[in-house]
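Hi R.,

Here's the input for the adenosine-5'-diphosphate complex you asked about:
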Amino acid sequence: MTDTLFRLDSVSRTYGSGAAALVAVHDVSCEGHRGERIAVVGPSGSGKSTLIHLLAALDQPTAGEVSWPGLTPTPLTDPTVVGVVFQGQSLVPTLTAQENVALPLVLRGLPYRHAQEQAMTHLGFLGLESIANQLPDELSGGQGQRVAIARVLAMRPRLILADEPTGRLDTAAARQVVALLLEAADELDGGLVIATHDPYIAGQMSTRWRMRDGELSVVPDAAIGVSA
Ligand code: ADP
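And here is the predicted structure with adenosine-5'-diphosphate in place:
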C-alpha cells in the first residue's frame, strides 16, 4: 500500500460558467502522504475550503483528477476513510454531545448502545465526559469544536481534513484543538490537512501550502511565521 494518501493532477474547480465563471482552484497539482501534517494558508477567498472539499470528495473538480492511491476504499465509496472537521458549528442541534458522536457509528450499523459507549470513550479522550449530555447550544465554541473532533476520531479516519477549525476560537482553545488534531493524526498513523489563517498553527505542521487566487505554492521552511 502506497504512502500517498491523495494526489491532485492539474485540478481546477470553476463555479458558474461564461462571464460569471469563478475559478476557485486553478491547475493545482500536489500530494499528501501518510504521516504528513499539512497547513493550507492564504487569504479569505483564495480557495482553501474548495481544496478541502475536493480532498474529501465532497466536491468534484471541473478539470483534472483527484485520486486517493493510499486510501481503500476511496472516499468516493466510503466517506469514513476521511474525517472532516468543518469551520464553526457542525453538530446536530437536537442531539446531545454523546449522541452527536454516536450518530455516524449508528449510521454505519453499530448497535445504538455500543455506539453510545464508543462515543463516551472518545469524548473521554478529549476530556469531555462531563458535557456528554449537553446540547450543542449549551457548549462553548471550544467544547463544540472538540465534540466535532471526537465525532471524526470515533470513525478512526486515515485522513483528517480540517477547514479553519479554530476560526472562531480564542488563542488558548485554538491551540488546544490543533494539539488534539496532531495527536489524533499520530495515533491513527494517518494524514492531516488544516486550512488556517494562524501562522502559529502553520508553524506546527510539517508542510505548508499557500493558496492565492486558487493557485497553490509550497511555502519553504525559511518562511515559517511569515504572514499566512
Ligand atoms: P477560502 O476557503 O480560502 O476562503 P473558498 O474556497 O471558500 O476560499 O472560495 C474560493 C472562491 O470561490 C471565492 O471567491 C468564493 O467566493 C468562491 N466560491 C466558493 N464557493 C462557491 C460556490 N458554492 N459558488 C460560487 N462561488 C463560490
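One thing worth noting: The mean pLDDT is 91.

Cheers,
M.
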